[in-house]
Amino acid sequence: DAHGKYAIEVPSANSKLLFSFVGYNTEKVQINGRGTLEVALTSAAKSIDEVVVVGYGTQKKSDATGSVTSVSAKNFNKGLSASPEQLINGKSAGVQILSANGEPGSSVIIRIRGTSSITASSEPLFVIDGVPVDNARPTSNLNASTDNGLNNGTLNPLVMLAPEDIENMTVLKDASATAIYGSRGANGVIIITTKKGAAGEAKVSYDGSFGIAFVPKKLDILSSGDYKDEVARKKLTASIGNASTDWQDEIFRTANLQSHNFAISGGSAKSQYRISLG
Description:
Blueprint: E1 16-19, E2 27-30, E3 51-54, E4 57-60, E5 68-72, E6 95-99, E7 108-112, E8 125-128, E9 131-133, E10 166-172, H1 175-178, E11 189-194, E12 200-213, H2 224-233, H3 247-251, E13 255-267, E14 272-277
Parallel strand pairs: 8-11
Antiparallel strand pairs: 1-2, 3-4, 5-10, 6-7, 8-9, 10-11, 12-13, 13-14
């Protein structure tokens, strides 16, 4: 199981057991009639046999001929992430991740090895647990009177996922890695694998974080009095009124951010489960 406990039937007391795990040296141990056997594997100096996810399954890193970048949960960006794509921002060469605008749930701009078309979309294909996800906004659910302004945008397909629920994100960059997806993978593919339950007793986990967002430095502009003096000095005829409003103070404020994720997982050898609420 996940803690290394095992039970196995052997044909004879003189049998040998072979222990192997990704990233560790293989050990072969003679049983010699013992009923209990404890083995500690040593870390391998090389990780060429590391398993990576590709479009058509998994394979050893040494066998992958295409350009593939895999980022696991332990290597994700630390801190409060509002959306899953922020977890791998800056973690993969040739991948640019930018926010399109400040609208909640708005699309995110992701470019894998640059823009590939002038008129067509350059967005990559997202595959979540083996299921391709469309990143077009579902206009059928819009309210014409209140949501008309949303028709021109696209929806971020990753907003349905809590960053804490993601186990691994793999970026496929070239034709050989994305061949299975055809033209949909022309701009690259981002494969997302979510966390799964493991056999054993039920485990309860909670992850919470707090933060603030603020403007560290505002634009240095003239006060209303200074502006009026400048207008008078240049003998401009513009009517500027008597208002004295610093719109930066009116618009910007300190934002309090918080994120909470609660999960229960467990199961048996034949079936596992994981339920989360974020």
